[in-house]
Write a structure and sequence with these properties.
Blueprint (H helix, E strand, L loop, with lengths): L7 H14 L16 E9 L2 E6 L8 E5 L1 H6 L2 H4 L5 E7 L3 E7 L5 E5 L8 E6 L3 E7 L7 H13 L4 E6 L8 H11 L3 E4 L8 H8 L3 E5 L6 H8 L9 H7 L10 E3 L7 E4 L44 H7 L5 H11 L5
Parallel strand pairs: 3-5, 8-9, 8-11, 9-10, 11-13
Antiparallel strand pairs: 1-2, 1-4, 2-3, 4-5, 6-7, 12-13
Helix pairs in contact: 4-10, 7-8
Bound molecules: guanosine-5'-diphosphate and zinc ion (ZN).
The site of zinc ion has 7 residues, from helix 9.
């Protein structure tokens, strides 16, 4: 079995070969293996069926696929295939197919199901490359506690996170940069953007190119506007992104991928709300590891079991006092430690 499962790295290598051997503008040859299976990505789950965008489709269409019975028998169907999984499909006509193989996942955004065993993870998105966390400089005001919660989720899932602060046109030049400088100091990439002035749009475009990006952030900060702004051709289906990101705001929705119409494989995924991400299930003793600036100091506390809340001789609290760790970040840490919402 193992040698039949292609992992994503080798798939990406094949893409490179295509990219170099053919002009980017020409339609890439569909990837097929010896058994005539075509490669694809799961865009959406519909019960036990999946929309799979195979290399035979153009990016606006997907095949409705079932999972091969043999695969279903091997594992728990509910966790077998997730949105974002790279799969091999046996085409059935133009619109349907059968998922025959699933590539090994490289990463995943998951939550632990409340009350279940530690290993019973619920995969929300398979194979995300990165997270993009969007806030606005104003209207609505930035929410540092929420930003830190999203960053913790990204760290807990091993996802590189980029912060985007949109609507810089609404504030005095430089004031936002000052406000978020401490995130840059601890190593986060911050993109300052405005869909009105065009600031940061090219940087965003580069960031999203040929990646699967989980987009998070409160509503009204300009996520759809930003994604629309990075389209090279603005006549192209403006409105689809808003529909995608705004859909079912107040209901539990199933995750989906949205193909951006540039590059070979640029996708965004929306996230369920921060609560559904199961942040509050994170073991408090792991929490300091998800605050990147705390990690290097954790061995310097007097008590090995230090929670960095009230204990004497605590390296984290010392770092907060000396200004090495931002007080705002430390406050976020304490809120999360105590399971407080805000
Ligand atoms: P979403 O809910 O995060 O997807 O936000 P939208 O893209 O729907 O934008 C919310 C509102 O903010 C809309 O009225 C946009 O026109 C506005 N908006 C988006 N980007 C900017 C920006 O860079 N500057 C300003 N001033 N307004 C913006
Ligand atoms: Zn401590």
């Amino acid at each position: 079995m193992a040698n039949r499962v292609k992992n994503r790295r080798s798939s990406l290598l094949e893409d490179d070969v295509f990219a170099h051997s053919e002009k980017r503008s020409s339609r890439p040859r569909p990837k097929r293996d010896s058994a005539n299976l075509v490669h694809g990505i799961v865009m959406r789950a519909r019960g036990h069926h999946f929309d799979v965008r195979t290399d035979l489709n153009d990016q606006h269409r997907a095949r409705l696929c079932e999972i091969r019975g043999r695969l279903r028998a091997e594992k728990n169907v509910d966790t077998l295939v997730a949105v974002g999984d790279r799969v091999w499909v046996l085409p059935d006509g133009d619109e349907r197919g059968l998922i025959e193989r699933i590539d090994e996942r490289t990463t995943q955004l998951s939550r632990q199901q409340p009350g279940s065993k530690m290993d019973a993870e619920d995969v929300i998105i398979a194979n995300p490359d990165q997270a993009l966390i969007v806030f606005a400089a104003a209207d609505p005001e930035p929410h540092p506690r929420m930003l830190d919660r999203f960053l913790v989720v990204a760290e807990a899932n091993g996802l590189p996170a980029t912060i985007c602060i949109n609507k810089t046109d609404l504030v005095e030049a430089g004031s936002t940069q000052e406000q978020f400088a401490h995130y840059e100091r601890i190593g986060y990439h911050v993109i300052y953007a405005s869909t009105k002035s065009g600031e940061g749009i090219e940087a965003l475009r580069q960031l999203l190119l040929d990646k699967v990006t989980v987009v998070a952030g409160p509503s009204g900060v300009g996520k759809s506007s930003l994604i629309n702004a990075v389209y090279p051709d603005l006549n192209l289906r403006v409105g689809d992104v808003s529909e995608f990101l705004h859909k079912g705001k107040h209901t539990t929705r199933s995750p989906q991928l949205f193909a951006l119409p540039y590059g070979e494989e640029s996708y965004i995924a929306d996230t369920p709300g921060i609560r559904e991400l199961g942040l509050f299930d994170i073991d408090p003793s792991n929490l300091p590891f998800y605050f990147v600036e705390m990690k290097p100091l954790l061995h310097d506390c007097h008590f090995p079991s230090c929670t960095h809340d009230h204990e004497p001789d605590c390296a984290i609290r010392r770092a907060v006092e000396s200004g090495k760790i931002s007080r705002s970040r430390y406050e976020s840490y304490l809120k999360l430690l105590h399971g407080e919402d805000d």
